[in-house]
Amino acid sequence: MTFRRVQRDRTMNLFKGFSLCFFCLIAIVIGSSPEVGSDKWLEDMKEKPKGDWTASEASDYVKHCIIR
């Protein structure tokens, strides 16, 4: 094997490792957030200052909690 091939293989292995870690982290973050409209989500929204809500969160709150 040439030096360039060994270097390329190491780079690819590093890239694969980082990619796997990144996707696992994303899966954990997505899996840990409560479903919109659930009781847990409603609790979280009540505790969160209304100034920190996004437009999407405010819209979801109205859809799922006020207009039930």
Nutshell version of this structure?
The chain has 3 helices and no strands. With 68 residues, the chain is mostly helical.
Describe the protein's architecture and organization.
With 68 residues, the protein is mainly α. The chain has two domains: 1-32; 34-68, no CATH class. 75% of the residues lie in helices and 0% in strands. It has helices at residues 3-32, 39-47, 55-66. It is rod-shaped, with a radius of gyration of 21 Å. The model has no long low-confidence stretch (mean pLDDT 85).
Which properties best describe this structure?
rod-shaped; 68 residues; 2 domains; mainly alpha; single chain
Kindly, what is the distance between the CA atoms of the first and last residues, rounded to a whole number of angstroms?
Answer: 66 Å
Q: Compute the gyration radius: what is it?
A: 21 Å
Shape descriptor reads: rod-shaped
Q: What's the tally of helices?
A: 3
Structural class call reads mainly alpha
Provide the β-strand percentage band: under 5%
Give the tally of β-strands.
0
For the record, the count of structural domains works out to: 2
Estimated helix fraction: over 70%
Query: Overall mean pLDDT score?
Result: 85
Helix and strand run: HHH
Largest sheet: none
Question: How is the quaternary structure best described?
Answer: single chain
Low-confidence stretches are none
